[in-house]
Every structure is written in structure tokens, then in C-alpha cells.
Amino acid sequence: MHSGSNAREATDSDAFDGVRPRVVVEPLSADAMAETLRWASSEQLQVQVTGGRSKQMWGAPSGPVDVLISTIGLNRVIAHRHGDLTATVEAGATLASLNSALASHGQWLPWDPPWANCATIGGIVATNDSGTRRHGFGAPRDWIIGVTLARIDGCLAKAGGIVVKNVAGYDLSRLLTGSFGCLGVIVTATFKLAPKAAASRTVIVHLDSLKTAIPVVTDLAASSLTPTALELMADECEVRVLVRFESVEDSCTRQAEQAIEVVGRRGTCRTVFDTEETEIWQQHMGHWDLAGTLIKLSCLPSELIAMLDWVRETSRKEDLLFAVAGRVGLGVADIRLEGPVDAQARLILTLREKLPVGRGSAVLRRADLTLRQMVDVWGPIGTGITVMRAVKNRFDSANRLNAFRGPAGL
To answer: How far from 124 is each of 1, 34, 52, 67, CA to CA, in Å?
Structure first.
């Protein structure tokens, strides 16, 4: 094992899904990461990769794990090319620490996934995780332009570049985004950046029901407004839509006023900013902190609210607690359920029957081990699974890296 790594015997706190690895290794450099993987491969060991552990309950249940590799020792900002609006950062750096470093030049990575204070860049990219600003800024795969990858055989590979340009050939950076670490370990990643907005306004729209939200969201999405976030929140007590504008002061104020005009009498509106706005969004992000199963529902935006209304009614019949929050303008939302596991399993299976392959999906984003053993985490994948297995075979034919945790259990 490389001298530039910290290694120790694993403890119960290192376990995933009750599976305790034999050893935990923390490489401190790209070469150390590569050497650790080379050693594990030569010894025919099963490897699991972790960062901030904010997503340890995502993906299918773990198989056997011999070596747990932590990226937290790789936490530096390698370069901030503020004139080019790009930055290269090691995979173990948290999003919060990266944006703190970028702030000195008024720039940032415009992501806000849950648990940004502990979520690492490598983990966010590996899961293509995103938050409320996905509506205006997209997901991590839209911002990554280069990557350094450590393969399971111990080789280091680079793809992409350090400036924003068109590149011929396969886009390895985007291939790794959303792979759940089953193709290789991201060591560094390079991103294009965005300037930090000077001002922000959020319009809070209180509605009578989910069905009332359909024309409101449709009209907001069809308008000339350019919100960075268009979020729905609903539970048994309330339904509301949050519309956020981030730009110069005059633009934010004007667009907030226009959004209220679009909503009209269909909802009760008010605009918040500064401290109150920050508190509203912190409250909204609390949806992901509360206990319960999280199901990522993706479908056509025009069908999302009707589907959520069905889930809420079915939850009542199954005696389940229901809440939802997500990107209503994009057709993506996280449903939170609490209650008997068998009832949750029935609801998920029935929901998937209403989502033909190609028209939507219901993925278990967070669930305890019992539910993940009862219900396939990913659901139907379709014909794409053939290509996905072929790619996995090219990168890791022995299935030693993050085995079974990737899409469709790769």
C-alpha cells in the first residue's frame, strides 16, 4: 500500500448496511489512490468508496466489502482560474468549502443539494445530485468539463480539459457523473463556474390543493420569467410553491412582481428577501433532513402534480405519512414516506406500474435496508441496461468497485 495513505482497521461505525469492511484506507494523493486500488485489485478484494457519507443509504444494499476507501484526505482546491470561470478541485472537498474558496472572486458552483456542508464533490458528481437551483442552473453533469479518474487496476486516467470548449470523442466526465462510483474513483474534477448573483427574491405562493398548483405552475413555466428555482412543497397540511429569482436588484424585484401577477387570485402570494428568504429556504431543505423513505419521482412536468396527488391519496389509504418537495418545473420531486414498510413497498410497486419505461421512474433515493431488500432500488431500466453492463465490464470486469450500488445494481 502507498506510503501516502492512512490505513486502519475498520470499526462498526464504518459499516454500510450492516456490512463492516476489513480495513479503511484514506489516500492523500492521486498516486496513493491509484496504488491503493492496484493493491486491492491484485489481492482480489472488494472495494467501497465513501466521502462525506451523506448518501450511504443510497443505492442497492452493499455486497461484501473488504476495503473502504475514503476520499476525505483529498480535499484541496487545485486551481481557481477565475479569469476563465473554471476551477479544479479534489474529490474529497465539500461543496461548502469549495464555494467558500471561490467566493473571494464572486464565483461559485451553483448547486445546493441536501447536506452541502458535508457532501463531497466526488459524491455529488458520482450521484449527479442536485438541489433547488437545478431549475435555473442544471445538474452537476452540466458543469463538469474535466476529470482525473483512478481505475480499479490502479491506472490514472484524465479526460476533458481545464477550459470550456467542445471536445471530440467520448465524454468520460459525464459518463462518470451519476455512475455511483462503479466505474472508477474520481480523484479531481474540473468545473465551469458561475458569477454569484448580487440579489435574490423569493415569491411564496400558498395554494388550496395540489390540483390548484397545476395551472399555477404551468403558467409560471410558460411565462418569460427566469427563476433559478421553482419548487413545490406539499404535505397533509399545506401546499405551496416557491419561486426564486437571482440577478441584479431591479431584475429580481420586477420578476417577483410579475410572478405574483401570473399567479393572480389562484393563490396567496408574498415576496421575501434577506434573512427571511434564507430562513424559508432552510426550512424547505429540512424536507431532506427528516426521517423516512425518500423516493425520487421523475416524469413529464405536465404529469407530475397529478401523479403526486395519486401518491398522497394512496398514502392515506395505506396509513402512511406523506410529504413532497422538488423541482416541479422539471418533473422531479422527492416524496417522503413514513409508516409500515410493507405498505411503502406496495405503494412503490404500484407507482412504478403507472410509469412505463421511458415516461418516468420512481427510484429509492433513501430507504432503510429492509425496504431496499423488499423492493428493487432502481426499478425498470429498459433496454439501456445492456449498454450500461458493457461499460461496467470495460472499466471493472471483475465487479470489485462499489459492487451492486450502481444504476440497476451494477
So the answer is: 27, 21, 10, 21
| Distance between CA atoms of residues 262 and 256, nearest Å | 10
Q: What is the residue type of 25?
A: V
Cα separation of 410 and 408, whole Å? 6
Residue type, 317: K
Domains and CATH numbers, the chain: 1-196 (3.30.465.10), 199-282 (3.30.70.610), 290-384 (3.30.70.260)
Nearest to 219 by CA among 264, 274, 277: 264
Backbone angles phi, psi at 120, to 5 degrees: -90, 160
Q: How many whole angstroms separate alpha carbon 50 and alpha carbon 122?
A: 9
Helix (H, G, I), strand (E, B) or coil at 203: strand
- 101-110, long-range: CB < 8 A, 24+ apart: 101/77, 102/77, 102/193, 103/196, 105/80, 106/195, 106/196, 107/80, 107/82, 107/193, 107/194, 107/195, 107/196, 108/193, 108/194, 108/196, 109/143, 109/191, 109/193, 109/194, 110/136, 110/137, 110/194, 110/228
**E-assigned strand segments in 273-399:** 293-299, 321-327, 332-338, 360-366
User: What is the model's pTM?
Assistant: 0.93
User: pLDDT by residue (tens digit) across 75-92?
Assistant: 999 999 999 999 999 999
- In angstroms, the CA 227 to CA 384 distance is 33
Q: 155, 30 in Cβ contact below 8 A?
A: no
Residue 317 to residue 258: CA distance in whole angstroms? 40
Chain centroid to CA 406: how far? Answer: 14
Q: What's the pLDDT tens digit per position in 357-391?
A: 888 999 999 998 899 999 999 998 888 888 889 99
Q: Using CB atoms within 10 A of its CB, is residue 250 exposed (0-12), middle (13-18) or buried (19+)?
A: exposed
Length of the chain: 410
Task: Give the per-residue pLDDT at 381.
Answer: 84
| Confidence grade of residue 1 (pLDDT, cut at 50, 70, 90) | low
* Cell numbers placing 332: 422531479
In angstroms, the CA 69 to CA 28 distance is 11
**Mean pLDDT value of segment 221-240:** 96
- For residue 83, the SS3 value is coil
Rounded Cα–Cα distance for residues 77 and 84 (Å): 16
Among all chains, which residue has been given the C-alpha cell 410509469?
355
